[in-house]
Amino acid sequence: MYRLLNIQKDGLNYIVIESIDGNSKAKLCLNQGGRLNQLVLNGYSVIAEMDASTYKDNYASAILFPFANRIENGEYEFNNSNYKLDCNENGKNNAIHGLVYNKMFQFVDRTFNLKFGAVTLRYRDEGKSLGFPFKYSIELTYKLSEKGLSLAVNIVNNDKNPFPFTLGWHPYFESKDLKNCYLNFNSNIEFQVDEHQIPNNEVACNETMPFQLKDRILDTGYRLEGNYVEFLTPEYQLKMEATSSENYLQVYTPCESNSIAIEPMTGAADSFNNKKGLQTLNSNANYKVEWLVNIKTSSKNNTNQLINKLCNS
Known about the structure:
Blueprint: E1 2-9, E2 12-19, E3 25-29, E4 35-41, E5 44-47, H1 55-58, E6 62-64, E7 70-72, E8 75-78, E9 81-84, E10 94-96, E11 106-112, E12 116-126, E13 135-145, E14 148-157, E15 163-165, E16 168-170, E17 172-174, E18 182-184, E19 187-193, E20 199-204, E21 211-212, E22 219-224, E23 228-232, E24 236-242, E25 248-252, E26 259-265, H2 271-274, E27 279-281, E28 286-297, H3 300-312
Antiparallel strand pairs: 1-2, 2-3, 3-4, 4-5, 6-16, 7-10, 8-9, 11-12, 12-13, 13-14, 14-28, 15-27, 17-26, 18-21, 18-23, 19-20, 19-22, 22-25, 23-24, 24-28, 25-26
């Protein structure tokens, strides 16, 4: 059985989906783009709650739309028209992480029963955003169950004109021992970037999977060959899967933290210009993607056995 809680703290509105036993919990912040502020699965803290005042710097669990990652100088061309987005990345003159990360989402629906708890949040844009003058709506459906957490994102073009887009998510996953954690995914392309973190070259991804995070500093983009990423920790083994047909990944390790941003995306950084993963949504059409997060909890020995198996496969 699952229950719904409403919390107000420091001027922010939160919705919490929680199992009756308290072993699983998803905390959502309506004011900050409907983001997943905290995630506990089977008693394990998977996404740690960060101070809300730091959100403007880390974008923790932000939904990234209509573009994921960065747009160089905030400039792009679409259907023979030029557009200029607000450059909100200090020191690099880029537009970063889309336009909905700081919007107020409305609670519009819920379903709670013995097997799961789910809520739907919605934001409507009337096409007055600088550099993206298109009307759209975005719905986020978070579903918590024994299987884990799923996040379904549905975009609807309410405008008379088509618009370009990519979509992403910016969760930070935590471990008490990050240096002994591993990442595992399938990729043959890694993006090299310039001094402003804009891709300027593609090289072969030569990572031997799974690779250990010890002594690694990452802010790296990849094109995935599959639809999943695994985060293997001494406490739990996490798998994140996407329903999108084309998948990209950004991995970022913040300084002095036991967390790592594992960001699924439907397109690459600067997609409005390099067109990598860029899609067009026609008037009255919709686009939907779902990300699923589940964990297996086990001993450190079992995690090591899985890593050895993956290395030898």
